[in-house]
Every structure is written in C-alpha cells, then in structure tokens.
Prior knowledge:
alpha/beta
Amino acid sequence: MIIKEENTSRLKLFIEQFPRDLPLAIELRHTDWFNQPTVAEELYSIYEENDITNIITDTAGRRDLMHMRLTSSSAFIRYVGANHISDYKRLDDWVQLIKVWVGQGLENLYFFIHQNLEVESPLLAAHFIEQLNNEIGTQIKKPDSPNSKNNPLGF
Length: 155
C-alpha cells in the first residue's frame, strides 16, 4: 500500500471534525505511514498542529512498526509482549526512554501492555511499574500477582 493524498486528506478531515475538547490518540499500523518520509512528516505535522497523541506500537519482531515521534505532551505506547524473557529488557529500555521524555516535559503517559498469553501481562506490568517507580519517583500501585489472595478473579 502506498499512502495516497486521499488517505491523508481523510485522516485530516477526521481530525478536524473531532471535538477539540476531547483528547485524541491515533494508532496507524501500516508501515507506509512512517516509512515514506514525506508522508510521515506530513502526518506528524497534522498531529502536532492538532495536539494529537501519536500511539507508538512496540511489537516484538516488528521493528518496522517502531516510530518514536512524540506529537503532544502525552505518550501512548502499546507494548506487545512476546511471552519471552526479552520482554523484560524491552520494558527496562522503555523506562529509560520515558525518564528522558519526562525530563523533556512529558506530562502524561499511557502504557498498555498485552501479549498472547495474557496471564503473564500482570507480571510484565508489575515489573514495568516497579522500574518506573524506582527511576522517576512515581508511586504507581502494582497489580496483584495472579496467585494473590487479593485477586478474586484469579488473574
């Protein structure tokens, strides 16, 4: 797929018609939005001019989807784990990058963690939160362990 002007025009029209008083984050998954430099620059400009948060997708094995441009004072990362030990290192790398972004004025962070075997997602989230709390001084409560007595749903 080559991104055509009509694709960009439709996206721009949608953004212009979206209520200004509601925050908006958009995730585009086709690599041509980011791998065609002129298209990517136009996309980022539209997002920046309209205070749209660019959803950053981190999927193991899909580095072609990794684009790291913040377009607002918020970051939204959709982290897809691989149910592999390397997930923890990737999360640690995110913590270090978020620490830099906070120093550069990041105001809001939305970090969504999921993977194929969702039973492991709370463990990844707990690791991420612990590292984030240690590095930037947040006091985010970690999710209960899947085996915790405080977790009545058992996940």
